[in-house]
Backbone:
């Protein structure tokens, strides 16, 4: 199913369609292939597997990488260096707390987050990056270290991920920092129901290790806009606490608080050069994937 | 618009149900799972629980649907007027009755009345026709059934307040006749007046055509503030051969507040001769007597004015018209009577007659008694009445002179007793019949009058009970008289003529077939004798009281004035108080002058002997008109139409005349209301369905 999208040239893939596909590998392939094919006309398409630069030959280099044309012109040995050769660790930190089980549409936040993680893993694996995943709620649930062969394990982990316990963002994220010995690319996918300051404190260790952080704030449309009308008892999915609510009079205030929360996160992450994206689960994955590729492009430029 | 089943309006209470529902924030039984109550907990509880009307549009639709259905079931019914106003081709015939009586000059009543009339005229649409009737004591059709609204408005603008009294009946009768000739479906009478109570007499019977409506528009009411002169009386006495007159004016205060020191002045021929001040209690009256003055000439003009130039009550007097009272006085002129008695009669033969005629002032009789042999034509000069008191034979030529005297308007009373002897020619020329022999009533059975013609002016005053009776009068003897074709005014109990009248030219001859003293009857010593003799003399002299003033709205017969002051033919010019000059035509018929204005009318008759002081008639507002008490307009309409339900005179009849198709058309709107209500309900269902599918009942997905 294809409809118009706000992004030029991108094929829209509805999350509802993704939900029917089921298998994460097929899903990731479908989304990413379609997505990349569509991006050929994009002006800022990244060069992740293309030629990056030349450098002088040093003993030990594979002579097959010597650029003979340059040698013919300059009489010096230069090695052609490709981005494809610069594989790195790509890790996903996925929140699987019970709050991620919420969804007003066909997909829950966790399902959407899983698809997002799978897509990004697929693209990383396609350029031979090492992929890994850590799922967490109030503590780390599963840990798959980055490896070039772990894409299937990543998909398997995502498939098994079930929201079971209330979440607590900071402890498991701080704990996860201990697993990262090598700098890499870390995508944190969570609904971030925590104080923005504490969230920042939790992700700082990862950032200080040299990892490029990309934080996806996954929110349902109902969470963003709070479009309820009937007075009801609202139950917190994590604490089971119930609260009588008359949405009519509460909605503006809720939206204001939510916007303030997002703005606070955006401000703090921006100050610390951490990429932050709000992901609306009612919208296609493309936006999140664009954000991922844009970040990768930035990494390649500053290399 | 009315409703056939208004009880259904109780259903309006149901409107409270949706309002209550929309006010009640019903908590759903299902619990909504939400990722985190982190933000909700921060919002104050009170604002969370605050209640207000939600889904306003849905509520409005529900209320509208209920309203429409209640309205439909209550079956609106459009009355004839309101429906007819909307039906094509339903034209109106409107009669505007505009009161221009003197009381409309009070305050701004006339301006308001004109404005109301203009508004009615402006309300005419299309082929509607309007008729303007101005009325006071008489009604006049000013503009006849026209669709020209400009002409109507111009006529209304040109109309002025008159001096007449208020009489509704003539105006309503005129409207009745106008509408009776109209074939238009809607006929209306709009009565614009101050609705004075004195304008309607209960016995007046008005029947507006069926279906016609009478709409009252009142410009009166409220508290009145007015001081006016309501009447003037005169006391005359003679001094040195001249009439001395004392005038007494009645001044009335028509307000609820007392007034003090109101100056009241008397003017004679334009000169103020006396001024008094008077203080009046609320709604009180007070007499003001002025100094004596002399009336030396004919037609002396007098005027009594309450207050100065600013009006009687000063600034608070809203009706200046009744502040002045006009009158005309002339020196008293006695009726000259000649009594002719037999030559051989003693001096007291006419004592009773002369004494009876010598008593009284209005009129005053100047009586002279002579012997029959001295009756000549010259003796009749300047006489108004000649009484032949049982005369025997008249001198030669006297009968002819008497005949000419009667033909000129003189009156002759013939008392026929024992001496009365008339030749055949004399009887033919003068007597109202043929005299016969005396009739004696049998001893012990006296005669009496068995029949009196109370319709005749002589006996009219005896018509009412206790006004004097002839039943106790005993007649012992009388002369027979064959009245022939003459009018018999009285008969004895045996059928014989007692009194017969004959008209000759401009005068009358009355024969009394018994004596005028106490010889043949005892009438002379009965109480009825005095008024009887005076009435006969007044009738024969054609005496008319010279009224000091006339009431506005009446017509003055100038011919009678001419006869009262014997002059020649009728013809001349009449000057009205406003200065207009009206010519009188001499066509042999009575010439009437309509007295529509307050003030002095001057009649200059051609051939009048005293041209220096022409005949003058003073005209005043009817004193009754100064009573500004108003009647409630609706009550008035109920009186006129005889219905307690107000203005629609023919409403019941109109309802009875409604055809089934018309009836259905008048109440068929309920179908449309019901359909509209159903449409609103469909819209409500759609909106409610749409709202119920919204995020408001969004469920958390199964995890």
Residues:
């Amino acid at each position: 199913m294809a409809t118009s999208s706000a992004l030029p040239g991108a094929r829209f893939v509805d999350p509802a369609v993704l939900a029917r596909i089921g298998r994460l590998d097929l899903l990731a392939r479908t989304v990413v292939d379609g997505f990349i094919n569509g991006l050929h006309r994009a002006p800022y398409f990244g060069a992740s597997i293309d030629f990056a630069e030349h450098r002088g030959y040093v003993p030990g280099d594979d002579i097959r990488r010597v650029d003979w044309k340059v040698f013919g012109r300059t009489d010096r040995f230069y090695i052609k260096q490709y981005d494809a050769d610069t594989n790195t660790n790509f890790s996903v930190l996925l929140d699987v707390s019970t709050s991620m089980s919420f969804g007003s549409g066909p997909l829950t936040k966790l399902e959407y987050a899983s698809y997002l993680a799978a897509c990004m893993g697929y693209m990383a694996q396609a350029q031979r990056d090492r992929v890994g995943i850590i799922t967490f709620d109030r503590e780390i649930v599963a840990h798959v270290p980055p490896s070039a062969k772990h894409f299937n394990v990543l998909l398997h982990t995502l498939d098994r991920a079930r929201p079971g316990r209330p979440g607590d963002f900071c402890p498991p994220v701080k704990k996860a920092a201990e697993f990262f010995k090598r700098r890499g690319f870390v995508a944190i996918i969570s609904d971030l129901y925590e104080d923005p300051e504490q969230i920042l404190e939790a992700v700082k260790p990862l950032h200080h290790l040299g990892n490029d952080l990309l934080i996806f704030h996954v929110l349902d449309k109902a969470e963003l806009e709070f479009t309820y009308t009937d007075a009801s008892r609202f139950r917190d999915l994590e604490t089971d606490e119930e609260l009588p609510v008359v949405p009519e009079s509460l909605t503006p205030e809720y939206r204001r608080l939510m916007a303030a929360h997002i703005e606070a996160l955006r401000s703090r992450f921006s100050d610390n050069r951490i990429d932050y994206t709000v992901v609306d689960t009612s919208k296609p994955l493309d936006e999140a994937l664009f954000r991922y590729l844009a970040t990768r492009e930035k990494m390649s430029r500053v290399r | 618009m009315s409703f056939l089943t208004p009880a259904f309006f109780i259903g309006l209470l149901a409107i409270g149900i949706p309002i209550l529902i929309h006010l009640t924030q019903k908590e759903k039984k299902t619990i909504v799972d939400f990722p985190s109550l982190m933000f909700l907990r921060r919002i104050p509880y009170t604002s969370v629980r605050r209640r207000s009307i939600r889904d306003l549009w849905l509520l409005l639709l529900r209320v509208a649907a209920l309203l429409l259905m209640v309205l439909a079931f209550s079956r609106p019914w459009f009355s004839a007027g309101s429906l007819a106003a909307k039906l094509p081709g339903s034209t109106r015939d409107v009669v505007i009755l505009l009161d221009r009586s003197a009381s409309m000059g009070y305050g701004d009543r006339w301006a308001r009345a004109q404005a109301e009339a203009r508004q009615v005229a402006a309300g005419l649409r299309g082929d509607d026709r309007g008729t303007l009737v101005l009325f006071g004591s008489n009604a006049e059709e000013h503009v006849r059934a026209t669709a020209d609204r400009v002409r109507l408005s111009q006529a209304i603008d040109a109309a002025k307040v008159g001096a007449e009294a208020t009489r509704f009946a003539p105006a309503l009768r005129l409207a009745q006749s106008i509408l009776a000739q109209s074939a238009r479906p809607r006929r209306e009478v709009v009565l614009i007046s101050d609705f004075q109570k004195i304008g309607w007499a209960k016995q007046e019977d008005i029947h507006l055509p069926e279906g016609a409506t009478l709409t009252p528009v009142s410009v009166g009411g409220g508290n009145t503030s007015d001081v006016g002169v309501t009447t003037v009386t005169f006391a005359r006495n003679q001094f040195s051969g001249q009439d001395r007159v004392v005038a007494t004016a009645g001044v009335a205060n028509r307000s609820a507040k007392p007034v003090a020191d109101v100056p009241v002045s008397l003017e004679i021929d334009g000169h103020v001769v006396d001024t008094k001040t008077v203080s009046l209690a609320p709604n009180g009256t007070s007499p003001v007597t002025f100094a004596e003055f002399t009336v030396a000439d004919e037609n002396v003009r007098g005027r009594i004015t309450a207050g100065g130039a600013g009006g009687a009550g000063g600034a608070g007097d809203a009706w200046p018209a009744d502040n002045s009272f006009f009158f005309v006085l002339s020196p008293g002129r006695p009726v000259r009577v000649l009594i002719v008695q037999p030559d051989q009669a003693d001096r007291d033969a006419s004592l009773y007659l002369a004494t009876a005629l010598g008593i009284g002032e209005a009129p005053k009789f100047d009586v002279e008694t002579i012997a029959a042999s001295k009756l000549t034509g010259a003796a009749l000069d300047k006489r108004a009445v000649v009484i032949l008191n049982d005369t025997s034979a008249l001198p030669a030529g006297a009968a002819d002179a008497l005949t000419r005297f009667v033909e000129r308007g003189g009156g002759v009373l013939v008392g026929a007793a024992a001496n009365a002897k008339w030749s055949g020619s004399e009887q033919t020329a003068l007597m109202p019949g043929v005299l016969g022999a005396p009739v004696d009533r049998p001893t012990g059975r006296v005669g009496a009058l068995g029949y009196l013609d109370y319709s005749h002016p002589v006996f009219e005053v005896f018509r009412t009970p206790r006004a004097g009776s002839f039943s106790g009068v005993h007649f012992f003897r009388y002369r027979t008289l064959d009245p022939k074709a003459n009018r018999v005014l009285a008969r004895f109990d045996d059928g014989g003529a007692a009194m017969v009248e004959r008209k000759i030219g401009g005068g009358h001859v009355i024969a009394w077939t018994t004596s005028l003293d106490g010889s043949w009857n005892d009438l002379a010593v009965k109480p009825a004798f005095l008024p009887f003799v005076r009435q006969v003399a007044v009738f024969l002299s054609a005496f008319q009281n010279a009224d000091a003033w006339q009431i506005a709205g009446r017509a003055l017969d100038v011919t009678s004035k001419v006869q009262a002051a014997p002059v020649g033919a009728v013809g001349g010019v009449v000057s009205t108080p406003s200065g207009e000059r009206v010519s009188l035509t001499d066509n042999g018929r009575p010439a009437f002058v309509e007295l529509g204005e307050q003030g002095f009318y001057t009649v200059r008759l051609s051939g009048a002997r005293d041209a220096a002081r022409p005949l003058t008639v003073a005209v005043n507002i009817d004193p009754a008109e100064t009573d500004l008490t108003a009647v409630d307009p609706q009550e008035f309409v109920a009186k006129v139409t005889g219905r307690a339900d107000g203005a629609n005179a023919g409403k019941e009849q109109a309802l009875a005349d409604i055809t089934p198709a018309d009836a259905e058309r008048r109440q068929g709107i309920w179908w449309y209301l019901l359909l509209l209500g159903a449409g609103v309900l469909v819209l409500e269902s759609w909106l409610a369905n749409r709202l119920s599918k919204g995020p408001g009942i969004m469920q958390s997905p199964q995890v």
